[in-house]
From TrEMBL:
Signal peptide: none
Keyword Transport included in the entry's annotation: yes
SMART domains named in the record: AAA (SM00382)
PROSITE patterns registered for this protein in UniProt: ABC_TRANSPORTER_1, ABC_TRANSPORTER_2
Name of the protein described by the UniProt record: Amino acid ABC transporter ATP-binding protein, PAAT family
Residue intervals of the ABC transporter domain: 7-241
Biological role stated in the UniProt entry: Involved in beta-(1-->2)glucan export. Transmembrane domains (TMD) form a pore in the inner membrane and the ATP-binding domain (NBD) is responsible for energy generation.
Keyword ATP-binding found: yes
Gene Ontology molecular functions: ABC-type amino acid transporter activity; ATP binding; ATP hydrolysis activity
Length: 245
C-alpha cells in the first residue's frame, strides 16, 4: 500500500474480565476501502468495531485512526468520534428530539458549528438519504427504515472520514432492509471508507473490497468477495456460509 491506512489496527487484544474477547486482530483500512465483517453471534464483531471509535477500551495492541492513537493516553475521545461515524442496529436516536435536532446536536456541541450551518449540513444529508420532508418529525413517528436513514444522516452531518455500521439492518422489517442498504451503497459509491458488520451477503458481494470472517474473537479469514463465496479457505467459513446463504 502506498498511502498510510486511515485506520490501522495491530496486535489488538481485549478482555472482558477473564474473557478474551478479541485476539491478535490485525487490519489496515485504506482510504475509500469498504470492509464487511461477518461471523457467528458472539464472535466479537461489535466489540471490535466499537474499539475503533473508542466506545470500548482495549488492553493490548494499537489502533490509529487518521493519525490519532487510541488507548488509555487518549485525552479527547471526541476527536476520534468526530472522525468516525457509527450506526447501530437499534438506531439510537434521541426520542425527544426532532429528526433535524438529532442531526444537529453533535455538530453544534462537538464540532462547535453555528446552528444555521449545522442545520444546512443536516438538511443536505437528510436529502441524501431521501427524507428531508421528515425533518421536523420525531423518531417515533417514522418507520424503522426511515429512522435508520436518519441515523446515517446524523452520522454524516459530522463529516466523518470513516463510517462504522453494526448490523444496521438486523432490527428492520424485511421490506425496509433495501432502502437502508441502498443508502449504504450510495455512500460507498461516493468513496466513503466503511466498516460494516452485516450478514447481508448481497451487499457484501456488491460493495465490499474485502470480507473479514471472525470467530471466537479472531479473524479467521480475510478474502475478496469473489473468493470468500466461491472458495472459502476455512472449514468454519464454509460452515457459516452454509448456515446463512
Ligand atoms: P458479536 O457482535 O459478534 O455478536 P460481541 O462483540 O457483541 O459479539 O460480543 C462478543 C462476546 O463478548 C460475547 O460473548 C459477549 O457476550 C461478550 N461481551 C460483549 N460485551 C460485553 C461486556 N460489556 N461485558 C462482558 N462481556 C461482553
Ligand atoms: Mg454484534
Amino acid at each position: 500500500m502506498t498511502t498510510d491506512p486511515i485506520v490501522g489496527i495491530a496486535g489488538l487484544n481485549k478482555w472482558f474480565g477473564d474473557f478474551h474477547v478479541l485476539r491478535d486482530i490485525e487490519v489496515d483500512v485504506a482510504k475509500g476501502e469498504r470492509i464487511v465483517i461477518c461471523g457467528p453471534s458472539g464472535s466479537g464483531k461489535s466489540t471490535f468495531i466499537r474499539c475503533i471509535n473508542a466506545l470500548e477500551e482495549f488492553q493490548e495492541g494499537r489502533i490509529v485512526v487518521d493519525g490519532i492513537e487510541l488507548g488509555p493516553q487518549l485525552r479527547r475521545v471526541d476527536e476520534v468520534r468526530r472522525e468516525v461515524g457509527m450506526v447501530f442496529q437499534s438506531f439510537n436516536l434521541f426520542p425527544h428530539l426532532t429528526v433535524l435536532e438529532n442531526c444537529t446536536l453533535a455538530p453544534i456541541w462537538v464540532r462547535h458549528m453555528p446552528k444555521k450551518d449545522a442545520e444546512a449540513a443536516a438538511m443536505k444529508y437528510l436529502e441524501r438519504v431521501k427524507i428531508p420532508h421528515q425533518a421536523s418529525k420525531y423518531p417515533g413517528q417514522l418507520s424503522g427504515g426511515q429512522q435508520q436513514r436518519v441515523a446515517i444522516a446524523r452520522a454524516l452531518t459530522m463529516n466523518p472520514k470513516v463510517m462504522l455500521f453494526d448490523e444496521p439492518t438486523s432490527a428492520l422489517d424485511p421490506e425496509m432492509v433495501k432502502e437502508v442498504l441502498d443508502t449504504m451503497v450510495d455512500l460507498a459509491k461516493e468513496g466513503m471508507t466503511m466498516l460494516v458488520v452485516t450478514h447481508e451477503m448481497g451487499f457484501a458481494r456488491e460493495v465490499a473490497n474485502r470480507i473479514i470472517f471472525m470467530d471466537a474473537g479472531q479473524i479467521i479469514e480475510t478474502n475478496t468477495p469473489e473468493n470468500f463465496f466461491a472458495n472459502p479457505q476455512h472449514a468454519r467459513t464454509k460452515l457459516f456460509l452454509s448456515q446463512i446463504l
